[in-house]
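Ops channel
N.P.: pipeline sanity check, posting one input/output pair.
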């Protein structure tokens, strides 16, 4: 009788385990971790074109300008910061006047490396030529400004940018007239 009671007790305790059926152990898959995106490297030569809109103030006269630019440069990515230089030519028609203003510029660029986004500032030298109405005068001055660039596509070879530039000339071409020029440029560059 004792063996019958022991057998009944063991079966009674085991019944709840089989009442729900066999338990399948499900292995959860390991979570997938995406590979980190490679850091974008701004180092290299580039060439590009741009469209410009601006303003020229000389004495009491104030005129709008529209034109184009072409640039070639080199950037060096130092990790957190990007430095470089650029040669740029800008040519613009002065609206409402039969005149033209052109600038050849040398810029020193310093910016913050934010991956594919590059905010920057620059300073440099400009050679400005003002022509029209049968005359042409030129002078040299400084330039400065700010800009931002963004690398496009998977490879980042094409770079779109927006730039604001100022050129201030006291006594332009040895006259008593100060020439102040500001310009906004929308640009596209190809990085080698």
């Amino acid at each position: 009788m004792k063996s019958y009671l022991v057998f009944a007790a063991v079966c009674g305790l085991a019944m709840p385990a089989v009442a729900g059926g066999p338990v399948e152990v499900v292995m959860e898959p390991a979570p997938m971790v995406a590979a980190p995106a490679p850091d974008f490297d701004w180092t290299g030569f580039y060439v590009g074109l741009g469209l410009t809109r601006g303003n020229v103030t000389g004495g009491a006269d104030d005129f709008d300008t529209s034109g184009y630019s072409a640039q070639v440069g080199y950037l060096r990515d130092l990790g957190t910061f990007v430095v470089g230089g650029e040669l740029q030519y800008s040519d613009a028609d002065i609206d409402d006047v039969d005149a033209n203003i052109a600038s050849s510029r040398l810029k020193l660029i310093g910016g913050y490396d934010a991956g594919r986004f590059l905010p920057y500032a620059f300073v440099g030298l400009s050679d400005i030529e003002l022509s029209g109405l049968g005359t042409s005068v030129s002078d040299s001055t400084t330039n400065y400004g700010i800009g931002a660039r963004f690398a496009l596509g998977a490879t980042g070879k094409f770079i779109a940018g927006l730039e604001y530039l100022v050129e201030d000339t006291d006594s332009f071409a040895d006259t008593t007239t100060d020439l102040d020029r500001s310009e906004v440029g929308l640009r596209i560059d190809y990085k080698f």
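N.P.: looks fine end to end. The CA atoms of residues 44 and 75 lie 6 Å apart.
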